[in-house]
């Protein structure tokens, strides 16, 4: 075959490609934007500019390929129907995700889908009123008008370029797109294969997870014991505030003797004798869901029934006449959030800083809880029980504090370890420095009322301490760093004046050994509420408290095995 024949064939290919772009310009632009905008936005926020650019060119190549495939439909009507299906199918998830990015700085996830699936028409209207104002409506109308004008007046196809310039532009973009696609597949393989790239993919995957979350939640809810019996109710305390922390290692708090001054506010409260700082408390597990199944129920390691067969603290407080609040900066649904969601749903009022699933982490700092607390205080009743669920020291640590709280650096970490590990420790110390600000800030909001504040993290966190280069928490083969937690109580002047004996009981108990699977007994004793399950030997402030009770974690004795390090030696 001679050279002129190849030239003619190539020219026909060029003409066909030019025709493809000219006749399908609006479809290609819409399909590209719907599948590119939100992910590109998230990549810009994450400072992944190169990935954003590479994905754009790769997607352009993909859109071109899809458009070429549509040409196999010879029937124009069928071809247009397929285009509409693709545009609408990607446009609807795009619009949902665009709202999520605009309001939450997050791609669509199971948490958002969960909320949409469980939202009734009234809540949907409230959602729209909250997040769609005049600016959003004008923006939507403008975009619709713009695309309508492009379609009607064929603005793209009317761009006056010579055929030669058109060919250069088209093949230039296609050539660059091909190069970038190969580079992305080689250099950023995980980006292409580990996460869904298109809004419709994310919507489908999120819907699948959300459905499973809802199914699990409803299964647990149906099993939860809500048959509350109150045998004694002398409760009069106006405000009981339970701050539920997250992944907080007391050995990394200056309040407990750590050498980095990361708890200045709590230190000051202790110096003024306003705090009762419990020195020997451990969590029953090192994962949130396992802890929550015991922390707020009468279930402990000695129990012979599943946790949901026991009464829980929220329902008991409701039955005792308290208005209950669940205010959370954690996930609103998901495999780790279902237990917390049950407690939240059983509360008189519950509110989350963001709609998100367990697998999603947008780096929302705990300071965003303050407006929720302020609103709850405005809605208070005669007796109120607040649970305020923090993100605390949850990894990733650098997501847990704003830049203004970046106080400590690797130079402040006096350990003989590599600098990159010192950086991680410094980030964690900054997270606890911010946590100190949050906890003391919540205390200040209740200072002028009759209030007792109880601060208990779910579990602790290992930070390159005794773990051979490990950070985080696991249930298997635990170290003491994963379960040694701070427990702190603060009382207002009005509380101390009205309940001096109770405050004296609390102060006298600070050095007793305690595991927080029995925390419900302590809270009920503070509140002067008794149920058939209440056991004074499991309340740390009671004179009958059993300080000899073994603290068993995963079948291992904390004092004899975990604390001494014998578990790791084995």
Automatic annotation (TrEMBL):
<keyword id="KW-0472">Membrane</keyword>
<keyword id="KW-0808">Transferase</keyword>
<protein>
    <submittedName>
        <fullName>Phosphoethanolamine transferase for glucans (OPG), alkaline phosphatase superfamily</fullName>
    </submittedName>
</protein>
<dbReference type="Pfam" id="PF00884">
    <property type="entry name" value="Sulfatase"/>
</dbReference>
<dbReference type="InterPro" id="IPR017850">
    <property type="entry name" value="Alkaline_phosphatase_core_sf"/>
</dbReference>
<feature type="transmembrane region" description="Helical">
    <location>
        <begin position="84"/>
        <end position="104"/>
    </location>
</feature>
<feature type="transmembrane region" description="Helical">
    <location>
        <begin position="124"/>
        <end position="148"/>
    </location>
</feature>
<feature type="transmembrane region" description="Helical">
    <location>
        <begin position="21"/>
        <end position="41"/>
    </location>
</feature>
<feature type="transmembrane region" description="Helical">
    <location>
        <begin position="53"/>
        <end position="72"/>
    </location>
</feature>
<keyword id="KW-1133">Transmembrane helix</keyword>
<dbReference type="GO" id="GO:0016776">
    <property type="term" value="F:phosphotransferase activity, phosphate group as acceptor"/>
</dbReference>
<feature type="domain" description="Sulfatase N-terminal">
    <location>
        <begin position="238"/>
        <end position="529"/>
    </location>
</feature>
<keyword id="KW-1003">Cell membrane</keyword>
<dbReference type="InterPro" id="IPR040423">
    <property type="entry name" value="PEA_transferase"/>
</dbReference>
<dbReference type="InterPro" id="IPR000917">
    <property type="entry name" value="Sulfatase_N"/>
</dbReference>
<dbReference type="GO" id="GO:0009244">
    <property type="term" value="P:lipopolysaccharide core region biosynthetic process"/>
</dbReference>
<feature type="transmembrane region" description="Helical">
    <location>
        <begin position="169"/>
        <end position="193"/>
    </location>
</feature>
<dbReference type="InterPro" id="IPR058130">
    <property type="entry name" value="PEA_transf_C"/>
</dbReference>
<keyword id="KW-0812">Transmembrane</keyword>
<dbReference type="GO" id="GO:0005886">
    <property type="term" value="C:plasma membrane"/>
</dbReference>
């Amino acid at each position: 075959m001679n050279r002129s024949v190849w030239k003619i064939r190539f020219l026909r290919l060029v003409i066909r490609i030019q025709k493809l772009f000219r006749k399908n310009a609006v479809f290609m632009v819409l399909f590209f934007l719907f599948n590119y905008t939100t992910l590109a936005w998230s990549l810009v926020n994450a400072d992944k500019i190169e990935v954003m650019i590479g994905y754009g060119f790769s997607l352009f190549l993909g859109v071109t390929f899809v458009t070429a495939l549509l040409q196999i439909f010879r029937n124009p009507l069928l071809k247009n129907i397929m285009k509409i299906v693709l545009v609408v199918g990607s446009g609807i998830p795009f619009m949902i995700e665009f709202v999520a990015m605009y309001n939450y700085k997050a791609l669509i996830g199971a948490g958002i889908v969960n909320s949409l699936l469980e939202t009734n028409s009234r809540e949907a209207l409230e959602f729209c009123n909250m997040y769609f104002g005049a600016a959003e409506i004008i923006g939507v109308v403008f975009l619709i008008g713009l695309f309508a004008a492009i379609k009607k007046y064929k603005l793209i196809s009317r761009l006056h370029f010579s055929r030669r310039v058109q060919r250069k532009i088209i093949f230039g973009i296609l050539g660059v797109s091909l190069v970038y696609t190969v580079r992305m597949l080689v250099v950023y393989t995980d980006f292409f294969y580990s996460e869904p790239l298109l809004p419709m993919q994310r919507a489908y995957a999120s819907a699948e997870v959300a459905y499973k979350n809802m199914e699990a939640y409803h299964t647990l809810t149906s099993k939860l014991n809500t048959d509350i019996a109150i045998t004694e109710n002398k409760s009069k305390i106006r405000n009981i505030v339970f701050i539920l922390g997250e992944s907080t290692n007391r050995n990394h708090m200056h309040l407990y003797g750590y050498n980095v001054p990361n708890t200045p506010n709590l230190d000051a409260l202790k110096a003024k004798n306003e705090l009762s700082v419990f020195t020997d408390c451990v969590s029953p597990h090192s994962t949130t869901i396992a802890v929550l199944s015991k922390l707020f129920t009468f279930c402990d390691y000695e129990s012979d029934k599943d946790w949901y067969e026991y009464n829980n603290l929220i329902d008991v407080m409701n039955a005792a006449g308290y208005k209950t609040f669940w205010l959370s900066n954690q996930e609103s649904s998901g495999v780790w959030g279902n237990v917390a969601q049950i407690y939240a749903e059983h509360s008189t009022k519950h509110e989350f800083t963001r709609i998100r699933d367990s697998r999603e982490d947008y780096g929302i700092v705990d300071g965003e809880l303050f407006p929720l607390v302020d609103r709850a205080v405005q809605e208070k009743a005669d007796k109120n029980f607040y649970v305020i669920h923090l993100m605390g020291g949850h990894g990733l640590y650098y997501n847990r504090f704003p830049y203004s709280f970046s106080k400590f650096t690797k130079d402040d970490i006096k350990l003989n370890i590599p600098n990159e590990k010192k950086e991680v420790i410094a980030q964690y110390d900054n997270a606890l420095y911010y946590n100190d600000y949050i906890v003391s800030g919540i205390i200040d909001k209740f200072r002028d009322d009759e209030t007792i504040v109880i601060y208990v993290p779910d579990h602790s966190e290992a930070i390159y301490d005794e773990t051979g280069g490990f950070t985080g928490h696991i249930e298997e083969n635990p170290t003491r760093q994963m379960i040694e937690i701070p427990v702190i109580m603060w009382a207002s002047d009005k509380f101390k004046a009205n309940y001096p004996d109770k405050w004296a009981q609390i102060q006298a108990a600070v050095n007793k050994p305690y595991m927080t699977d029995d925390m419900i007994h302590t809270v009920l004793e503070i509140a002067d509420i008794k149920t058939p399950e209440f056991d004074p030997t499991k309340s740390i402030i009671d004179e009958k408290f059993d300080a000899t009770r073994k603290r068993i974690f995963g079948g291992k004795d904390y004092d004899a095995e975990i604390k001494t390090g014998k578990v790791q030696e084995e």
